Structures are given as structure tokens and as C-alpha cells.
Amino acid sequence: MAQTTTLQPTAAPTHDAPRTGNWDGGNEPFKASYGKLMMWIFLLSDAFTFGAFLTAYGMIRHKHEVFVGEASAFHFSTKWWPIPDHVFNAFPGMGHANVPLGFVALMTMILIFSSVTMVLAVEAGHRMDKKDVQKWLLWTILFGSIFLCSQAWEWGHFIRGHEEGTLMADGTVFHGANLAVNQYGPVLFADLFFFITGFHGTHVFSGVCLLIWCFVATTNGTFEKRGHYEMIEKIGLYWHFVDLVWVFVFTFFYLV
Amino acid sequence: MASHAATDHANLTGELAKPNTGRIWRIFFVLVGITALEFAITFALEAQHFRTMRNSILIGLTILKAFFIVGEFMHLKQETKGLIWMVLVPTVLLIWLLVALVTEGSAIGETLAHMFS
After folding, report:
1. Residue ranges with strand state E in chain A
2. In chain B, fewer beta carbons within 10 Å around the N or the C end?
3. Is the Cβ of A123 closer than 8 Å to some Cβ of chain B?
4. B114: which chain A residues are within 8 Å (Cβ-Cβ)?
5. Cβ pair B86:A105 closer than 8 A
6. Residues of A in contact with B94 (CB under 8 A)
7. Smallest CA–CA separation between A45 and chain B, in Å?
8. Are A127 and B7 inside 8 Å of each other by CB?
9. Residue A177 domain flag
10. Mind telling me how many Å the CA of A253 is from chain B's nearest CA?
11. Cβ contacts (< 8 Å) between B20 and chain A: which residues?
């Protein structure tokens, strides 16, 4: 039709040509691919969520009284904020032995190690080495799952509590913790523990699911046919972010 | 990296490239070292009058760890300047929010403690 060609003279000849103009999709902002850029923006928004959690933690903690005196004289009371290494001092299979923060340190190492195996999977993807990608993905899935199991144990121990318990205001001795009462300190201490580590654990769980999917797709040759392993890079960004969040949770919740 | 798709295609046919992972393992040992140091400092400086200094050191080391994870593992160092700023600027605002609300929390605590005295 002559009328359409006069209205859009350049439309017909360039119809099948790749779009290269700035305003029709040919331009990559920040020279990053669409998927990776969106992953960065998502992670930034997720950082706001965790930032809000840790900010709330900092504010509530500073609002409460601090235990004054020698650390060895510390005992649990709802009056002051607990010292973390008196709360998290158990290790699986070691009964009532006092191992302050030992298990959390191990969990941190496991997560850092899973981050390394993840970056090795990304590196293998760059080389189009399917076998290596599979190998490192499996290691990452393994360490991610171990971390999740460790966290489940940690929660179980936190909920069951220490043997001695704490004398509450109503005269009864309470063991462990729930959202309304806990033996370690102010109510909000346990609430923040459940929400912050729970939200982080949910992220690890989603990460493990995504990695399992990645492993299946790699095995089926999906990425090889596609010509690149960018999906591994994108999931890798997510996985490193989860590790990064744990680094901050470890410092602000357990160490400081 | 923006140009990875092009470099990957070169490897499609022919031999697989040798893994180049020395740097990754070095950073892993740096991260483990910093974590061990944090752990040691937590117990070495447990006394009351060291509290502020200890916490400052711990937060500094945590930010150093974050720098290695984001810069090296997430390859942010290799992205464009614009993307780096896009990630850093909102994060700095988050730190401001954290400092502001922690101060606010202390003020609320003080007020509550002296409310009836």
C-alpha cells in the first residue's frame, strides 16, 4: 500500500534489521545485559529490606538497657539486652559444653565457602565448561543445604532454650523462646532473631531452589545451546548477596 | 562483564580453556582470615571499656569483607562507573538511616530510663 510507505518511509526496509538505535532497544544501559541489570536493581531493593531489619534491630537494641559489669557475671534478664555469646553457645553433639559462637562461626565459614564455589561455577561458565559448572553448582547446593540444616538446628536450640531457664516476672521459670516470651532478654530480642535470621534463611532456601534449577538446566544443555551461561552469573549475584547479608547479620546480631 | 557473550563464543568449538582460579582462592583466604580476626577480637576485647573501640573495629572489618564480596565475587569492579554509583549511593543512604535511628534509639532509651526520676 502506497499510503503506508509514504507515512513511514523508513519502516519497510529496516523491518528485519537488528535494532541498534538509542531509543528502540539497541542501547544497553551501563553496558550490562537486561537480566543482570534487573538483578542488580532487585538486589538493591532487597538490601533496603535487610537494611530496614538491621536498622530496626539497632534502634531497638539501643533503646534497651545494657548490662553493666564483667562479662563473666552476666546472667539473663528481661531487664537488659543479652550478650549474644551467652545465648548462642551450644554446638551440635557436644551436649552442654560452652562453645560461645562456635556453631555460628562454622555456619559463616560454610556460607563463605559456598560463595567461593558459586564464583567458581560462574568462572567455569565463562569457559563454557559444562562439567565444571555442574561440579561447582553441586558443591554450592551442598553447602547451601548444610547451612539451612545448621540454621534449623540453631532455631531448635534457641526455641528449646538453656536448661537453667530464667525466672520471669510472674514467678515461673521459662525455658527457650517464642514470639511472646523468651528466657534470654526483652521480648523483641527473640522476635528480631526469628525475623532477621528467618528472612535470611528464606533467601538461602530460594537460592538453593534456583541453584537446583540451574543444575538441571546445565545438565540438559540449555545454557550450552543458548551459547552463554549468563543465568549462572545472575543466580550467582543473588547467592553472593545472600552471603553478604549474612556477613552483616553475623556482625550485628552475633558479634557486636 | 558486558562483553562476556562475545568471548564465550570463541570457546564454543575447540579446546576448553584452563581454569584461572588463583585470585578467587586468594580472596577466599582473605575472607576466612578476616572472619577469624573478627572472632578473635570479639573475645579479646570483651571488657566494658573496650566496647566502643571493639565494635568500631568489627564494623570496619565487616565493611572490608563486603567490599571483597561485592567487588570481586559479584564483579562490581568490572562494571561501568554508572552501575557502581547506582549501587553505592542508595547503600550510603542506608548507612545514614542506620546511624540516625540508632542514635534515636539511644535517646528513647535515655528518656524512658529517666522518665520517673
Report:
1. 166-167, 173-174
2. C
3. yes
4. none
5. no
6. 47-48, 51, 55
7. 10
8. no
9. yes
10. 12
11. 123
B108 with A63: Cβ contact below 8 A: yes
Q: Are A139 and B73 in contact (CB under 8 A)?
A: no
DSSP notation for B41-108? HHHHT-SGGGHHHHHHHHHHHHHHHHHHIIIIIS-GGGS-HHHHHHHHHHHHHHHHHHHHHHHHHHHH
Query: CB neighbours of A192 closer than 8 A, spacing ≥ 6?
Result: A53, A56, A57, A60, A253
Q: Which domain holds residue A50?
A: 36-255
Q: What's the CATH code of the domain at A134? A: 1.20.120.80
Given CB atoms, is A244 within the 8 Å cutoff of chain B? yes
| Residue A167 φ then ψ, to 5° | -75, 120
Contacts of B39 in chain A (CB under 8 A): 101, 105, 255
Please name the residue that has the C-alpha cell 552475633.
A254
By the CB < 8 Å criterion, does A109 face chain B?
yes
Q: Mutate which of A244, A246, A252 to disrupt the B interface (most B C-beta within 10 Å)? A: A244
Q: What is the pLDDT of residues B14-41, one digit of tens each?
A: 577 888 889 999 999 999 999 999 999 9
How many other CB atoms are there within 10 angstroms of residue B45's CB atom? 15
Q: How far apart are the first and last CA of chain A?
A: 74
In a domain, A108, yes or no: yes
pLDDT per residue as tens, chain A (256 positions): 444 444 444 555 556 667 777 777 777 888 888 899 999 999 999 999 999 999 999 999 999 988 887 777 888 988 899 999 889 988 998 888 888 899 999 999 999 999 999 999 999 999 999 999 999 999 999 999 999 999 999 999 999 998 888 888 888 899 999 999 999 999 999 999 999 999 999 999 999 999 999 999 999 999 999 999 999 999 999 999 999 999 999 999 999 8
Number of domains in chain A: 1
A192 domain residue, yes or no:
yes
Are the C-beta atoms of B42 and A101 separated by less than 8 Å? yes
- Ordered by start, the domain boundaries in chain B are 1-79, 80-117
DSSP state of A253: I
In a domain, A14, yes or no: no
